[in-house]
Amino acid sequence: MFISAVRPFVAALGWVIGGGSTWALLGTAFLPGTCVTGGQMSVIALATVLYPPGMRSTVVGWALGIGRLGGIAGPLIVGSALGAGFLPRDVFFALAVVLVVASISVLMLERRSRA
Fold it and tell me: Where is the signal peptide, in residue numbers (predicted)?
């Protein structure tokens, strides 16, 4: 739910960052931040539904660890892209594409576990 909702918010942030008002920027930045945080917190609930009890702690640990690596690498990648001359709007549109891939991955995981 949260990962699916964040895509349009990240794309909207790409539009607003190019020349919108400060309030529009703050409001638009709040929405993807909320969805990403909610998505990270829902990993624990997702693990309890999709994995057997013996694997749950390992799955949660790996998921949270990968999320933290993304939290470290994300600003470095965005900073490098902006330093290379990419427009902020283009960087945020690229991030929206990455989130589409993440959404598809979660949906495939859910369907696979129900089969």
Answer: none
